[in-house]
């Protein structure tokens, strides 16, 4: 299920809800096992789909200039604006390909560790739009561990956490990269319990469509219980 899909996978969702129902009392155990804790903040109002389309594809030289400016900018506000522009440009297939060819995915992903949270949010949005391109997913998948770390360390329902979950939702639409999320199933189930996080449910539904992943989902629920 891609981000923004309005056609639920009914059978998978029912099975998933059955699993989650048994995990409600077990969140505290997960916190003890993981040694971590989730922070709560008021849920932000965010768009379901991060794609913001500009009027037309960008010129190659324009994209090169933006990537160069992104690497040299020392101002967080400027980095946010550049990433926003690149994310908007990535709504077009031709730009998705050009950014990959210019090694822009690696450049953009480098800002997943930016000190400014708003820069990390814009980085995730840009990567999410780039992830709509199947060849780009081969380059983005290497950053899954960083994205999972952002999910675990960010306040619950924050823009940062939701942006990271959206990226994983689109990366897990097909079964090609779903195995990369096997170790994160317990985290996703816990998020679903503690915050009723719809975006976490979307990732889990994608994973549950893969028969090879269902055992891992069930076993994760058993460990929580």
UniProtKB/TrEMBL annotation:
SUPFAM superfamilies reported for this sequence: ARM repeat
Where does it mainly reside? mitochondrion
Q: Where are the transmembrane segments?
A: 15-33
Q: Where in the cell is it found?
A: Mitochondrion outer membrane
| Pfam families (alphabetical) | Arm_2
Show the InterPro entries listed in the entry.
ARM-like (IPR011989), ARM-rpt_dom (IPR006911), ARM-type_fold (IPR016024), Armcx_regulator (IPR051303)
Query: Does the keyword Transport feature in the UniProt annotation?
Result: no
Keywords in alphabetical order? Membrane, Mitochondrion, Mitochondrion outer membrane, Transmembrane, Transmembrane helix
Q: In the UniProt record, which is one GO cellular component term? A: mitochondrial outer membrane
The Armadillo repeat-containing domain extends over 59-222
What name does the UniProt record give this protein?
A: Armadillo repeat containing 10
